[in-house]
Amino acid sequence: MDKIYIRDIDNLNFWINYFGCSYPNSYDEEEDISVSELMYELCTDGIGSWWESFTGYYDGVLDESDGYLDDPTTLEVSLTNERALKIEFHPGDILYFINDELIGSIGPHWKLQTVPYEEVKRLLALENGRQLFLLLLPLAVIKQEDTDSARQEIREQMQNYFAEELCENVSGCIIAGLVESCEL
């Protein structure tokens, strides 16, 4: 396992790739664009190669192991004395754990909308809160009445890494994918 720390992900290469692959359901119908498409516009060969190295990607990994590694790049962070976050970055998935219990996945077997947005927002008060907020945001479920304030908060946190116009477009896509369904 390649253990990493928050400081290892506090760079543009990480965030371009992370946003690009972490929002499989985030699509803005009005603009006819997805988070992945917006991030792809920023991606260069070097940025893509950085992510491949970071996740341990190699030709054939998707066929051999469905994109999962025995020893993935792993970030572990204490959220409280009782709660520890662990995120495994595999070539074909990102898995999220709290105290070793799987709480989410963005890969082919999605497990999304598992954490109330208000819980994710509370992370901002912690040390490295911005990074923790952005890391767990793909698992959030946002109540319809909170979409405007959530969009503003997402946009503000993203502006630490991206240009304002991009943050506006990406936050709109993210909201579209994270707002709770009203289906009966």
Describe the structure.
This protein has 184 residues and is α/β, with parallel strands linked by helices. Helix content is 42%, strand content 19%. It contains 9 helices and 9 strands. The strands form 3 sheets. A 5-stranded mixed beta sheet has the order 1-4-5-6-7. A hairpin with a 5-residue loop joins β4 and β5 (84-90). α2 (12-22) crosses α4 and α8 (147-158) crosses α9. The protein is globular, with a radius of gyration of 16 Å. The N and C termini lie far apart (43 Å).
Largest sheet: 5 strands, mixed
Uncertain segments: none
Q: What is the element string, with H for helices and E for strands?
A: EHHEEHHHEEEEEHHEHH
Provide mean pLDDT, rounded: 93
**Helix fraction by DSSP (H/I, runs of at least 4):** 40-55%
Topology:
Elements: E1 2-4, H1 6-9, H2 12-22, E2 27-28, E3 33-34, H3 35-40, H4 45-55, H5 61-65, E4 73-78, E5 84-90, E6 93-98, E7 101-105, E8 115-116, H6 117-122, H7 129-136, E9 140-141, H8 147-158, H9 164-178
Parallel strand pairs: 1-4, 8-9
Antiparallel strand pairs: 2-3, 4-5, 5-6, 6-7
Helix pairs in contact: 2-4, 8-9
